[in-house]
Amino acid sequence: MTYRLSLLDKSPVQAGHTATDALKQTLRLARRAEELGYHRFWVAEHHHTTELAISAPEVVIAFILANTSRIRVGSGGIMLQHYSPYKVAEVFNVLSSLAPGRVDLGVGKTPGGLPLSTSALQAGLRQGVKPDFTALFSSLSTFVDGPVPVGQPFAGLSATPVPPVPPERFLLGASPASATLAARHGWGYVHAGHLNSDQANLKASLETYHAEGGHAAILAVAAYAAQSAAQAAERVADLKVFRVFLSNGSAFNLGRREQAEEFARQVGDNDYRIEERRPSILAGTPETIHEKLEDLSERYGISEFVIEAPPVSFDERLATIELLARSPLSAAA
């Protein structure tokens, strides 16, 4: 089975460098990805961190669109719980009017930061009321489809400008519930395999998506390619993620133990635990990585993968996308 390759970049800020450097590197990756034939280039949203440079993905998307000509560009994703669905629809309609047929609107459910930044982002919302993601997502879908039908709130309202080609829409998730929500609103579903590698969960989510009438799903994976398997294994061996389990049953992945501890402190939770884990990364030669992708493609009917490089140097991120594109098994090359 053939499959497309796309990319997700978080614009990591390397030691001794600035956010300006990181954003320039992200643009370089996007332009190189276009040259290599990758299908999409997505950027992620993170807040109140000196380690990642993108807090406003829509701004970076506009910049990348202006400096490329063919590759699709989008969000992986907009953290919808923080924003007005109408404003998100307007922003992506503007982007789609600037670059018709090249814009992807991906939204996610996670906060993209620690509780303090979440509180600041949601300061304009009703205090003490947790945003209902399902309701926000339904509203966003209505505004993007627009105009709002008679009988619904804001009937007759349109998110303007109305672009000649609307943005392609995706819900980023990692559960059957997210897959159901995407399918029922006619959105694409991107399973976050780079964050949750549980195969039973992947199978259940994709089966649910198709059962609910969803079309071809996308799988996001982390990958690191090198000339030799030993080199790749050695490079990713020390990478870790820290999952903080709060007393209310919720859990979040952070890049450092200190961040996990700070997350618990900001919500005032003293009865938490932190679990150190190895991230799920497809590491090896480009041939072995494509063998794994081919297996996933055939097993689950995946026709497109979104590749995220782990938090390594820019040169290594660039090398990974070049090696994967050069592989004879790559449908993107």
Automatic annotation (TrEMBL):
Which Gene3D superfamilies is this protein grouped with? Answer: Luciferase-like domain
The Luciferase-like domain, residue ranges: 13-298
Q: Which Pfam families match?
A: Bac_luciferase
Provide a Gene Ontology MF annotation, just one. oxidoreductase activity
Q: Which parts of the chain span the membrane according to its record?
A: none
This entry's Enzyme Commission designation comes to 1.-.-.-
Oxidoreductase as a keyword?
yes
Tell me where on the tree of life, at the top rank, the source sits.
Bacteria
| Key words, A-Z | Oxidoreductase
What the entry lists under SUPFAM superfamilies is as follows:
Bacterial luciferase-like
Q: Which family does it belong to?
A: To bacterial alkanal monooxygenase alpha and beta chains.
- Name of the protein in question: MsnO8 family LLM class oxidoreductase
State the organism named in the record.
Rhizobium lemnae
